[in-house]
């Protein structure tokens, strides 16, 4: 099958996790900067993304199938989504603004692209902070080894 072929059905895991996490978290912007928090009651885009990653890993998906990306929306707002690559090579975007999962537009210019060891590290820190009972998670822009294009702390978030 060709990469990105639209005839591949969206995996049920992706559809279910995207829809359930979108329904479970009530949207609320971080008061300052971007802070990643796992399974929050109230959260914004990166909280949905990191929670979806955690859920899919628990369903047996491998970490190398995922990227957490930040891009600028048409409204000039920095927005984070989780990308998941299927066995067929299709990359889906799990977006808190979209009920279903949709095929990712690879032409989107990215402000942040976190994958591999850095994504594993981010998840470990966020999971660890939850276990310690700390209310705040990890600021994406505070992570080491982020590319130079990291968004400033005070950027508007969606
Ligand atoms: Ca947040």
Query: CATH architecture, please?
Result: Roll
Low-confidence stretches are 144-156
Radius of gyration based on Cα positions:
15 Å
Structural class: alpha+beta
Report the strand count: 9
Major β-sheet annotation: 5 strands, antiparallel
Name every ligand kind in the structure. Answer: calcium ion
- The fraction of residues assigned to DSSP E strands is 15-25%
Provide the number of structural domains.
1
Give the mean pLDDT.
82
Using the coordinates above, name the CATH class. Alpha Beta
Count helical runs: 3
Tell the overall outline: globular
Instruction: Assign a percent range to the helix content.
Output: 25-40%
Output the helix-strand order. Answer: HEEEHEEEEEHE
Strand order of the largest sheet: 7-6-5-4-8
- Could you tell me how far the N terminus lies from the C terminus, measured between alpha carbons in angstroms? 35 Å
- CATH T-level fold name: C8orf32 fold
Describe the structure.
It is a single chain. With 158 residues, the protein is an alpha+beta fold. It has a single domain, classed as C8orf32 fold (Roll). The protein has three helices and nine strands, in the order αβββαβββββαβ. It has helices at residues 12-24, 45-58, 116-131; strands at 26-27, 35-36, 42-43, 66-72, 78-85, 91-94, 102-103, 110-115, 138-139. The termini are far apart. The relative contact order is 0.21. Bound molecules: calcium ion.
